[in-house]
Amino acid sequence: MDAPAGPLPPLIYTMENKPIVTCAGDQNLFTSVYPTLSQQLPREPMEWRRSYGRAPKMIHLESNFVQFKEELLPKEGNKALLTFPFLHIYWTECCDTEVYKATVKDDLTKWQNVLKAHSSVDWLIVVVENDAKKKNKTNILPRTSIVDKIRNDFCNKQSDRCVVLSDPLKDSSRTQESWNAFLTKLRTLLLMSFTKNLGKFEDDMRTLREKRTEPGWSFCEYFMVQEELAFVFEMLQQFEDALVQYDELDALFSQYVVNFGAGDGANWLTFFCQPVKSWNGLILRKPIDMEKRELIQRQEATLLDLRSYLFSRQCTLLLFLQRPWEVAQRALELLHSCVQELKLLEELVFSDQDYSPHGRAELGFVSVPPGALDCWVFLSCLEVLQRIEGCCDRAQIDSNIAHTVGLWSYATEKLKSLGYLCGLVSEKGPNSEDLNRTVDLLAGLGAERPETANTAQSPYKKLKEALSSVETFEKHYLDLSHATMEMCTSIGRARSAKLVGKDLAEFYMRKKSPQKAEMYLQGALKNYLAEGWALPITHTRKQLAECQKHLGQIENYLQTSSLLASDRHLTEEERKYFCQEILSFASQQTVSPGHKIVLPMQSFAQLRDLHFTPSTAVVHVGGVLSVEITICSQMPVPVRVEQIAISVHFSIEKNSYRKTAEWLTKHKASNGVIHFPTEPSPFPAAQNSLPALELYEMFERSPSDNSLHTTGIICKNVHMLLRRQESSASLDAPSGVALEDGAHVLKCSSVTLEPGANTITFRTQAKEPGTYTLRQLSASVGPVWFVLPHIYPLVQYDVYSQEPQLHVEPLADSLLAGIPQKVKFTVTTGHYTVKNGDSLQLSNAEAMFILCHAENRAMIYSNTREKASDASLRVQSSDKVTSISLPAAPAYHMIEFELEVLSLPSAPASGGESSVLGVTEPHRKHKDTQKAGHCMATTDHKVSIDCPWSIYSTVIALTFSVPFRTRHSLLSAGTRKYVQVCVQNLSELDFQLSDSKLVDTGDGTDLQLIPLNTKSQQRISSKQSVFFVWELQWTQEPPPSLHCRFSVGFSPAAEERLSISLKPYTYEFQVENFFTLYNVKAEILPPSGAEHCKTGSLCSLEVSITRLSGLLEVDKDEALMESDEYFSTKLMYEVVDNSSNWAVCGKSSGVISMPVAAQATHRVHMEVMPLFAGYLPLPDVRLFKYLPHHSAHSSQLDADSWIENDSLSVDKHVDDQLDSSSVKSRGSVHSAASSEHKGLPMPRLQALPPGQVFNASTGMQILVLPSKDDHVLEVSVT
Amino acid sequence: MAVCVAVIAKENYPLYIRSVPTENELKFHYMVHTSLDVVDEKISAMGKALVDQRELYLGLLYPTEDYKVYGYVTNSRVKFVMVVDSSNTALRDNEIRSMFRKLHSSYTDVMCNPFYNPGDCIQSRAFDSMVTSMMIQVC
Amino acid sequence: MADEALFLLLHNEMVSGVYKSAEQGEVENGRCITKLENMGFRVGQGLIERFTKDTARFKDELDIMKFICKDFWTTVFKKQIDNLRTNHQGIYVLQDNKFRLLTQMSAGKQYLEHASKYLAFTCGLIRGGLSNLGIKSIVTAEVSSMPACKLNSHFLQMFLVIFFFRSSVFLFVFVFVNLEEIENAKPILLLSILTFGVVICSILIFIFNYFLTHNGQ
Fold it and tell me: Gene3D superfamilies, alphabetically (chain B) (predicted)?
């Protein structure tokens, strides 16, 4: 261990603490050797093996050589180690026997005896030789002889106790080695001595300690003993060991105090229980505080003295050991424990005496004057700090503030309490007894110590100065606190700094300078808020409130007090008080009327939920909306609020859909209650939790074959999370609350808010349509406005206005003409109020009537589809208009009623160009229904309705469809004629048909129609047909054409007798050329000889064409040629067998000239061959008019029609019976179509209308027998 | 023994703080809050320390005249702070340590309680009674 | 932790339960993963609290990750993570060659498309644990060429942990076939890790850009 660094003053070593070695014998010799010796001895360290298994140490030995005196030798039971001679050396350089015998031997013997007498065995004899002496001596014995003599004279068994040092003053190798040998020996012996003696000492010490329970044992004595040991270690520079000694003492003492406190009274402790008279702090500048040591020795030390001394020693040693920071730390502990111990003893004294075995009397008592300890602590803190600063450089100190800061703040604290004690912390200085106290305290400090006297900033001076006056105290206090705060902040102890700051603030408040205090309070409050410490927040707020009150920051004060009033951690009274503060301020009229003080509402009351009626939060213009809010008042007392207002933002909404009544009826579900989150948790950190991860399954397919090679979980909002992390720092809400006054405000005046939940209802009459968003909630108490700046989640209600509307729709999916049908009228009143006498004016279309019954009831529904009422409504109809008088209905309601309408079963006419039926529309429809097949003919009826609410009349179109389709056909038997009418029911329901009629509307007078229908009533069920037949009869020449109207009454079969008589269903048509001109008769005769035809054998076909009538109008055409006596016309016949039963051999057609006269007959004969066996129908014979080509303009037309008819003839006969109109039309169509072949000179054919030709042999069959050899026939045929 | 026991979340707001009814609660709140400074220091210092020194028990945070404040931090950065009357010298380091262990284990139970939502204040009765048992005077 | 088998079966049931409830429309289907993950989160919080009760305090994230790989994993899955990599910028790659929750599935690609369901809970477990240890993180998972699987966790202080599971079944197949195939298997594994590095880099770059832009604002 090398010597401690610079700052340690060397004065420790100047005091003679070195192991003592005595020297006897030749003093001159010793003095000559001494310099070398004292210089050489410490040079090399020596290992010191220790007893009790303590670790061996290398130590550099030094020693203090003194002349041997007998009184130096310790008597029995010596406690003083410092003055103990560890080794005795005898020096001699005698070299001749005479001299030895003469003097030296006796001298040695005496020396030895003295040592023996004191039973000290640590001795050494040094024989110094030098050659110089030998030179001039003549009678020389061998050098060794003397040594040997000495050896066997004195050290009989321990021969090593005698060493030779040869010419020490020379400089030769021999000298060197003899020196080394000597020194080593010396050291070893010294150490041996140490070990022996210290061991012995420690043993004694232990035994002494064991006695400590015995009465009369004195701690002070023991203290001295152990300290002796400590000194020795220190002397040997074994500071660790020295420290250990002191620590043991420390521990022992503390333990005693504790036990003492626990009632086990060790009476020696009473010595320390004297009243504390002086409290000058620690003294660390001197290595040993001698006067305190004396006190202890004299057993007059107080507890403080003992502690101080003990600590000063520990401090010194620690500084030797280069552990200044430990000093600081220990210092703090010491101070605390001292204070504790004194308290303990004190309360022991003043507590009743039950447990103390020996009376209170002999237990003196510790009385500590108030503030004394504070002084002591303060001084000590500063002393320690200064001591440390004394031995460290700036950098070290700065880097170790953490260790010292505790002392600083402790000192600050103490100074503060002193200040309060001495009345230095008040705007009017200390009063008399404060001053007395101060004086006493200062007295207790005693006089300043010399060693600090000349240092300017000594603790002593500081304290004295601080206590001297208010100003100086403030100065010192501020210095200290600021220093402390700086240190704290510099090492990141923000919270501690804040705490000191708060003390400072308190101080300022006491000094009535709140403006200084506020800063600190705000700082602290911020910190507590940030970390969510409820109680400190409350407490600090209270201080802040007071401060703001003094500063007259009205708004802040009110805000703070509102916060406090709502603070659960305060007592009811305090809350009431702060609440009252607000109210009283509000009540006082001093503030200027216009001036408003806006405070956040959060602390005053909280919006819990909000409820609309109607729950859909949608009202029509003029409707009443009520908003019911529940706010939870935080105030401890009922507060009367002048007005609570919700400012509303108005905006015209784009999509008007929300505002319609249908929307309402659909959105019944939402019950219209909006809940608001209660205040956020007070934990700031807990709030900024991360947004939820967006995790998704991930499937990764290999590009080559699209096979799944990786699945997993990925997070899609990494960047979000990162941003969140970034921005979470700036989370604090903006405090500025502005009261916005929108045009629209829901108000509620003079409400009293009870503590807890209150419900407040706002009513408003909806004005303009649009969307209203609730923005701010504000409550005003006098000039004080509590404002909830944003109502979140978003709350809005809608106001809509609706135009009145009229809907008319049939009840059934399609209206049927001819029978009464129900039509539903819906009047949506919208903003229009239907008064009595308002009516709908329907201008009826002809052919549609509105059937008005006596009882017509109208339902009135409210907007939300609840049935409001129902009223009867009168319908009176003149020929042109029907007026429906509506029942009175309020706005935004619906009137619904049904009416029966009847449209005429307007007959779709047949016989196209027949001009009888004027209605072209149904006709056209009829046409395309013919093509479209099985769907009903429809009629549209437009009705224009005049509504009371608008000048314009709304036109509605009702489409009726005719339930029937009718076809007619002409049948003939020879010259007799029949008309068949087929009625088909296309509708879904069944009908009852009654009294069917067919009348001739033409001029034909003598024509009569004989019905062949059996029953008059007939049921026609849906999708079925009914046929009616009439026979035509006439007397003289029949008319060329015949106009008929078919009419049949009908009524729904299901229904009972209808009130009104229904119009019959009519159908008009026209038949032309129905009179038979020619009779065609064909017959097949088997070959002569056979009475049956055979397949493959030719038969003869006889066709006879007979003219039945004379010349008629219909014959007047260009085919008619006039010879001299009679007329004749050209006909062409043609035998076709499209069923290919027959093969016509030879020419199958031919032109004949037919005389136009009754009974003129023309026969044709031709060969046909049956191809099959069985009853075969005859091949059919057709007859055409043959028009020669030389005739006039319309040549190509007929040519076409010839070709046409030739080709068409087939299908004409195959498909349904030809009705003339279609033939005509078809003819015309073709004439239009084929205008390309112009002027081909060709004969033309014209088909005879089917009515004119009667084929007598249709339906006749002839039996054909199969022939024998079919196969031949097969061949021949093919 | 203990005059105040506090559990403090990793964000430094109190999850649970309870002190003997006789004394002024506020004082302890301040004390515990201030002690967080030292806790933070020790934790940050702990980073450098060797594994064996990195125990959860932080030891004496700082003494004051009347109280000793001890600290403990779980791996989940939840801090336990215990204030002990400094006149009560019977309490040695080991007792404190074991008390903290007890505190920790019962805090763990709280954490694993389905009705406890991490980050909320601790309402659990079990925990409460455990703390009470720590605070009853023995010496 | 209860008996391992119990845990595994319970876990399976939980997964299927959540997905069933999704089919019944109680949870919208996409959120199943999230739901499972959240369950895991809470469990993780509790577990870590228990497991770290008697351990020494952690020095740094790496220390924590080691704990997760060793003690935590062992307690939950009765085995350690087989491999831990990190780039010391908060990206950790953990690899489990025998992830218990997958070993029950058959080898090959048979159930690959379902594998991810069985990772969600574990992701949550880890995220919860880390968050309770004061590390905000994102944990994602990946099963490649069934039933090997990676799990990426992404600390918000730009940390990314990537777990790389590899189920036994797969390996066993190799073992039984012959040994050199395992030699073949290794490069595949390394390759996948390499590709992985690329992924990480890209992510990091993205994040850096992100920060740049963010600071820009």
Answer: 3.30.450.70
